[in-house]
Amino acid sequence: xxxxxxxxxLVGLIFFSKINQAKxxxxxxxxxxxxxxxxxxxxxxxxxxxxxxxxxxxxxxDQNRYPSPQKVLIWQKELQLNDRQKxxxxxxxxxxxxxxxxxxxxxxxxERTMDSLFRxxxxxxxxxxxxxxxxxxxxxxxxxxxxxxxxxxxMILNLTQIKKYGLLLQD
Length: 171
What we know:
Blueprint: H1 2-55, H2 59-63, H3 69-74, H4 76-79, H5 83-119, H6 125-156, H7 159-170
């Protein structure tokens, strides 16, 4: 009797190990197939974030002629910036780039986390609300940084330069 149970146990153990081995192989095959698609998605998301952040988040500043530090530095000769202005606006631009990179990294990490939660079916209402609200927080902080940079840049320029900037925007 014990021999029969022992053989049954061994057969069951071998059966389960074969199933787990087959599942592991299938998972590794699926993972290698999904990896390029996933990386492509994250690359597209990162590109989308960068372009979206530079264009639509600055629309309100552009429409009301608040100078973007990057554009001011591009047009520094036309705007006749002095050395003090160049230095101050360069500092604003560098800090803005740091903040944009920081927020984009947070947004991408958040997106990867949501992707993982959905992929492994571990999402629930609470975590979905948490991560989507967090996404909104990062977007808001990013927009604030972009618009603050425009306000700070405007305070550095004189009225003649601001008018010239408006004319350059129209061209």
